[in-house]
């Protein structure tokens, strides 16, 4: 009988093992809380104490390692008073939904594109950055980058750099860059043969096709969270764009189109700055040209832009106010923009950075800066979250299964309205 | 008295962890389904009764019924192929005199030895890609036209089935192979002495003896197949790489319709409804289950 | 008689041929990954792809082994798998034994309900599990992951081993009981050796589950030094723009090697303790 008890006990011990660790972990978190609250209690004493005991600020990110390292290096300048940990978190936006209001597991700040701002602000996990710095501090930012991080009148993001799509071409293959979309179509007709393509893009994704839609004056969703998928401009854009797709690889997926361009099998491509290092490594003589103008509207293809920046979590806003203010102030300086531009060809959000010689000499960054007036920041309303998928469904139906544009647009609009309703 | 309590004591640890990790999330989802937890009330949600269930009924629109039928078709086709193929492969692996069987067995397990998303990615990029995929490269070498493997509905469904079989067969082979080991060889010897052939032995001895052992695994696989999300989603529906094929199963359909809205109360209600549906469907197999429960 | 022998040899040859073809089919995408991982250029997909890269290189393997925390991930996964397998077997064996051998109130109902619980679409479970682990302080800890994995595999373990235990005639145990053995002795001395394949199958199932699971590992673990292999692999390919296919392929292949070694090693133990004629009722 004793043996039986032993088995049970050992099984139970495994369980208490979990419990035991739970107990040992609990005091650790609560002591962190205590430390944090005592800090608030006496700010004078806290700032005195800080000299001895550094404040640790965690910043989550999900970006390229070089960029993260550049930010880390910049913020290391605040040591030893403030220790910043720039930490990678996979599936970051999912994780933030989980832990957003739990100081024990949530980060203090995060670095991400601006398009989730509305979602997180609405959930109530973000603190406006104007709690730490003034609006005047932001006056040197490129104008487009501020509304991108603004949701319901509050600014939630300090922009660091922005990304936008560029018209890139292979100088060896494309001698003259088409000025208009009709020219582009003619070029594609003449040069798409034998596994070579005149022009490629990710033709059935919302992010890449938005440039066409917006060039036609259409929109996926406006800042009042009203979808515009069945507007005449949108139907025109999708219908017009459909004829280009016939001369592009059917699946229009990232790896496919970029590989074609890198192998010199596509003469031109609309893609992001992230593609440039690979293209250069592949030995392509890369040219960057202005977006072609759409003939019927006389407006260039007007792509989305993504503004990358830092936001502050509400839970950290009170407990680590001074440290976070110091970090934001540090990031307001042009240094970080210049460093990011040098390290990873990022186009800084801070106009002051462009005074630096190395940046004004960078062809790609200059090209991106020029397009900054001709881009639409991705909508940051929470409803945009459902629009990506709906728009892409609509585009793939039209482009990949030859569905009728008008029918699909109407269908998608209905779907969008019902899903936005379902969010509430 | 003590004796009566013993079985509960023996099974308590297992039931406790299962209760925590499997049962609790279901109950929790049930609870959330009665609240208005969505991005506008993420932390300050309140009880709203059955409103989400009323809303969930709207998910069952014109696209839902085809998705249900497709899911049933998907489950039946996949399970039949899976069990039959795995059974014969396992039998082959147990043939007497097969020297390399350990090597074969190990190699056959390879698809199972890497995370699913890795192999699905491999299939999508390496096999099915329209420009560079191996299948199309072979077609071109043989002088045929490219095929858009994942765009047409029937073709995409077939491709998903192939990938699902590829991923699921190792598990099934291993289960059946393991179960075959537990069959007393004496049965075969006496049957062979009585002059029974391969098919008679298989039908009269192997299958009946295997059934009770393999049945739970098959039932659990059936649920997994029914709920299969990754393969269909990653091959045809992934954002940024949708192929235009509409082969939604129930789970991918409600994912696009409900889960994507960040409305947790609503999505929970939808989950519970689907849970209830699968349970009702599985009542058809209940007779089987009872037997297995002895 | 010789006729039969020849046909037997022919049959075996045919069988070998069929199995080789099946293996090749199963390995097709894997061979592809191997070829990519040995390729000197970062091109998973290339119009000039062939199974034999023009420039062979082991650089990708060197890079994954030494420039990335691959070995740390391997160690983490090994530790986590071992702990999970031990815990899972420790909780499911007694339960499976109880459900197989004893008749008690609620037995059938529990078995049936456990099976039906599998029907729940778990996409939303993450939240519930998080809310469960948070008060226990198990977020971002291996204990938390072990608990999740043991719980998830618990139903399979219980049902699978119960199924095997059922096939072992109770008469064998009777003999033990007469000799005065208690339950623990009966299980460890008689049942377990006889049910060895089932224990191995269950353990391998748990092992593979832990080895391949990444959603919980990625969501609940923060910091690359705490990742498991599957989570680490996920992080290698998560950003499409920087995805390095050859390194990723090399990593995937390396990550699956230990599993294959385990598979190969267990094969000889997969033979049941039940020998022909040894137990006749």
How is this structure best described in words?
The complex is a heterotrimer of chains A (424), B (294) and C (281). With 424 residues, chain A is an alpha+beta fold. Chain A has 18 helices and 15 strands. Residues 1-50 of chain A have low confidence and may be disordered. Chain B has a domain at 64-247: MetI-like fold, CATH 1.10.3720. Helices cover 71% and strands 0% of the residues of chain B. Chain B has 13 helices and no strands. Chain B has helices at residues 2-32, 51-59, 64-93, 101-108, 116-128, 134-141, 153-181, 185-193, 198-227, 230-237, 250-257, 264-282, 286-292. In chain B, helix 2 (51-59) packs across helix 12, helix 5 runs parallel beside helix 10 and helix 7 (153-181) crosses helix 9. The two termini of chain B are 24 Å apart. The model of chain B has no long low-confidence stretch (mean pLDDT 87). Chain C has 281 residues and is mainly α. Chain C has helices at 2-37, 59-67, 70-101, 107-117, 125-136, 142-167, 170-178, 183-194, 196-212, 215-220, 229-237, 245-266. In chain C, helix 3 runs antiparallel to helix 9. The longest helix of chain C is centred in the N-terminal third of the chain and has 36 residues, at 2-37. At the A-B interface, helix 1, helix 5, helix 10, helix 17 and helix 18 of A face helix 1 of B.
Given the C-alpha coordinates, what overall shape of chain B results?
Answer: flat
- Averaged pLDDT of chain B, please? 87
The chain pair forming the largest interface, with residue counts per chain, is: B-C, 106 and 109 residues
Query: Tell me about the biggest sheet of chain B?
Result: none
- In percent, how much strand structure appears in the residues of chain A? 5-15%
Question: Based on CA inertia axes, which overall geometry of chain A fits?
Answer: globular
CATH class of the largest domain in chain A: Alpha Beta
Residue share in helices of chain B? over 70%
Oligomer: heterotrimer
* Number of extended strands of chain A: 15
Strand content of chain B: under 5%
Number of strands of chain B: 0
Flag low-confidence runs of chain A.
1-50
């Amino acid at each position: 009988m004793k043996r039986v008890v032993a088995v049970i006990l050992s099984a139970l011990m495994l369980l208490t093992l979990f419990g035991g660790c739970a107990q040992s972990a609990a005091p650790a978190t609560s002591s962190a809380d205590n430390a944090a609250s005592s800090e608030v209690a006496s700010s004078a004493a806290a700032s005195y104490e800080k000299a001895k005991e550094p404040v640790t600020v965690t910043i989550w990110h999900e970006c390229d390692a070089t960029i993260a390292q550049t930010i880390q290096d910049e913020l290391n300048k605040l040591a030893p008073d403030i220790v910043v940990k720039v930490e990678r978190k996979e599936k970051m936006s999912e994780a933030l939904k989980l832990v957003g209001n739990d100081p024990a597991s949530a980060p203090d700040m995060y670095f991400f594109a601006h398009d989730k701002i509305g979602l997180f602000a609405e959930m109530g996990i973000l603190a406006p950055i104007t709690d730490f710095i003034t609006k005047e501090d932001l006056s040197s930012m490129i104008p487009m980058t501020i509304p991108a991080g603004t949701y319901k009148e509050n600014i939630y993001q300090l922009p660091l750099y922005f990304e936008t799509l560029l018209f890139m071409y292979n100088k060896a293959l494309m001698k003259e860059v088409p000025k208009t979309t009709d020219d582009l179509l003619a070029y594609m007709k003449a040069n798409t043969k034998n596994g070579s393509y005149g022009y490629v893009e990710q033709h059935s994704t919302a992010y890449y096709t938005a440039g066409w839609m917006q060039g036609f004056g259409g929109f996926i969703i406006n800042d009042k969270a009203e979808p515009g998928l069945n507007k005449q401009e949108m139907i025109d854009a999708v219908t017009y764009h459909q004829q280009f797709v016939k001369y592009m690889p059917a699946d229009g997926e990232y790896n496919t189109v970029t590989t074609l361009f890198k192998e010199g099998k596509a003469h031109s491509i609309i893609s992001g700055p992230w593609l440039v290092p690979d293209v250069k490594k592949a030995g392509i003589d890369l040219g960057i040209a202005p977006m072609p103008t759409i003939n019927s509207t006389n407006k260039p293809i007007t792509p989305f832009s993504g503004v990358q920046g830092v936001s502050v979590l509400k839970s950290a806003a009170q407990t680590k106010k001074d440290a976070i203010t110091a970090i934001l102030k540090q990031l307001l300086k042009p240094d970080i923009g210049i460093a990011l531009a040098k390290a990873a060809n990022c186009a800084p959000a801070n106009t002051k950075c462009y005074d630096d010689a190395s940046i004004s000499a960078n062809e790609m960054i200059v090209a991106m800066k020029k397009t900054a007036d001709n881009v639409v920041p991705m909508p940051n309303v929470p409803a945009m979250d459902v629009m990506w998928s709906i728009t892409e469904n609509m585009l793939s139906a039209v482009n990949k299964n030859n569905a009728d544009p008008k029918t699909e647009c109407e269908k998608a609009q209905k779907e969008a309205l019902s899903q936005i309703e379902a969010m509430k | 008295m003590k004796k009566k309590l013993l079985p509960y004591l023996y099974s308590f640890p297992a039931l406790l962890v299962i209760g925590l990790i499997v049962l609790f999330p279901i109950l929790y989802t049930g609870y959330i389904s009665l609240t208005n937890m969505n991005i506008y009330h993420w932390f300050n949600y309140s009880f709203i009764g059955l409103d989400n269930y009323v809303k969930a009924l709207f998910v069952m629109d014109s696209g839902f019924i085809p998705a249900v039928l497709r899911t049933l078709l998907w489950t039946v086709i996949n399970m039949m192929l899976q069990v039959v193929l795995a059974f014969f492969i396992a039998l082959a692996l147990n043939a007497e005199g097969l020297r390399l069987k350990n090597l074969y067995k190990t190699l056959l397990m390879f698809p199972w030895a890497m995370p699913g998303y890795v192999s699905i990615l491999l299939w999508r990029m390496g096999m099915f890609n329209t420009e560079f995929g191996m299948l199309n490269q072979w077609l071109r070498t043989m002088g045929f036209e490219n095929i858009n493997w994942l765009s047409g509905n029937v073709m995409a469904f077939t491709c998903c089935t192939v990938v699902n079989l590829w991923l699921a067969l190792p598990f099934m082979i291993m289960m059946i192979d393991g179960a075959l080991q537990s069959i007393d060889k004496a049965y075969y010897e006496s049957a062979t002495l009585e002059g029974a052939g391969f098919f008679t032995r298989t039908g009269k001895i192997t299958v009946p003896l295997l059934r009770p052992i393999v049945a739970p695994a098959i039932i659990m696989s059936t649920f997994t197949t029914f709920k299969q999300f990754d393969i269909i989603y990653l091959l045809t529906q992934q954002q940024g790489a949708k192929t235009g094929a509409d082969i939604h199963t129930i789970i991918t359909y409600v994912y696009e319709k409900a889960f994507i809205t960040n409305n947790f109360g609503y999505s929970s209600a939808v989950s519970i409804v689907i849970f209830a549906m699968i349970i009702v469907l599985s009542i058809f197999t209940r007779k089987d289950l009872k037997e297995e429960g002895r | 008689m010789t006729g039969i022998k020849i046909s037997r040899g022919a049959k075996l040859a045919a069988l070998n041929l069929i199995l080789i073809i099946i293996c090749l089919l199963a390995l097709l995408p894997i061979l592809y990954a191997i070829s990519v991982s040995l390729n000197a250029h970062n091109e998973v997909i290339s119009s000039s792809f062939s199974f034999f890269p023009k420039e062979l290189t082991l650089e990708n393997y060197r890079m994954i082994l030494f420039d990335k925390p691959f070995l740390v991930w391997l160690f983490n996964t090994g530790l986590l798998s071992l702990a999970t397998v031990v815990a899972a077997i420790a909780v499911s064996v007694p339960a499976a034994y109880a459900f197989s051998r004893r008749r008690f109130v609620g037995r059938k109902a529990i078995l049936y309900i456990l099976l039906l619980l599998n029907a729940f679409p778990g996409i939303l479970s993450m939240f519930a599990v998080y809310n469960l682990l948070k008060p226990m302080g198990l977020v971002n800890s291996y204990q938390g992951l072990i608990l999740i994995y043991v719980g998830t595999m618990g139903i399979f373990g219980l049902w699978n081993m119960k199924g095997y235990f059922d096939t072992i005639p109770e008469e064998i145990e009777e003999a033990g009981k007469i000799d005065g053995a208690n339950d623990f002795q009966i299980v460890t001395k008689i049942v377990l050796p006889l049910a060895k394949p089932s224990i191995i199958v269950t353990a391998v199932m748990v092992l593979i589950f832990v080895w391949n699971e990444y959603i919980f590992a990625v969501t609940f673990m923060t910091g690359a030094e705490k990742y498991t292999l599957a989570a680490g692999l996920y992080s290698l390919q998560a950003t499409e723009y920087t995805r390095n296919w050859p390194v990723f392929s090399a990593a995937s292949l390396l990550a699956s090697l230990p599993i294959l070694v385990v598979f190969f090693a267990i094969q000889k133990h997969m033979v049941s303790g039940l020998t022909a004629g040894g137990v006749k009722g």
